[in-house]
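Write out the bound-state structure for manganese (II) ion.
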Amino acid sequence: MILILKKNHTNDQKNHLLDSIKALGGEVKTLNVQDHLIFAFEQNLSLDFLAFTAVQKVISTHNELKKTSRDAKKESTVIKIKDYELGPGRFLVISGPCSIESEDQALRLALQAKKAGAHVFRGGAFKPRTSPYTFQGLGHAGLEILSLVKKETGLAVVTEVLDVRDVEAICEVTDIIQIGSRNMQNFPLLKEAGKLDKPVLLKRGLAATIEEWLHAAEYIMNCGNEEVILCERGIRSFDQETRNFLDLTAIPIVNKKSHLPVIVDPSHALGRPDLIEPMTKAAMAVGAHGVMIEIHDHPETALSDGFQALLPIQLENIIYQLKKMGAALDIYLP
Ligand code: PEP
Ligand code: MN
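---
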């Protein structure tokens, strides 16, 4: 920890600071730079240094990301999802409708996603909708459909949890539990997910910084669950051309800062199907370990997010191109 003291601090203010640090076992080294007195010490003390009148600036030399950072673990984390692995040198495609609408719709789309080459099926049973008057998902009936889809197609499934009370029921069905953008800082939910023996797909918050996103992952890992998959899904911005702003810069930044796998959701980031192909290719190019893409065979009658859904044939075409691109980049797409 490095503290830069104000030029005009009094002796009393300085001694109060010094005594407080020493009282907690801090061993202070001092230095004078351009009339500033500087305190440096190794210990990570729980004092609010900026609340001391003598202190002008605090530079923390401790990495607060105790579990998610590359300082904590050098090797990249690889997460097993049924027959596949998510991590460096591989690329997985998660696909399915925004919402589970019926047994027929879910089965039909899961078979089409599988035929297109997707590795994991997605489908919302509990939907976090902006308006309470729009389709809220089939809830527990949707989970039963997901369970049937798993049995019939052999695909692993991912679905979102909105409420701590539903975690157990969702876990009985799903292979990956999703915490959506709106819940990235729902700390009770993060802690509950941290107790699970199941990968958690953690979406970046609507307006969250990368540090806040990693701190949310830290909540999950700190409760014992090491299997966190980060998902960039776009952040709020001023431009209305796309639903959100797809921050692809976050991918190489996260890969530098953290050992956790990171994927991209171009569907919610862009909110329009025509940009999904180029941005999915871009996601692979910048080091994402997979994508999550919404599909529907009748987008015009979809109960949610039809406007951004790709047709299954378009997904198939993208996966075909990703395989060729992956071969050139030495990235394996099973
Ligand atoms: C979703 O994936 O269905 C979803 C609601 O996404 P987000 O949390 O990114 O809005
Ligand atoms: Mn959606």
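---
The pocket of phosphoenolpyruvate (ligand 1) is lined by residues 98, 124, 128, 160, 180-182, 203, 233, 265, 268 (CB under 6 Å).
The mean pLDDT is 97.
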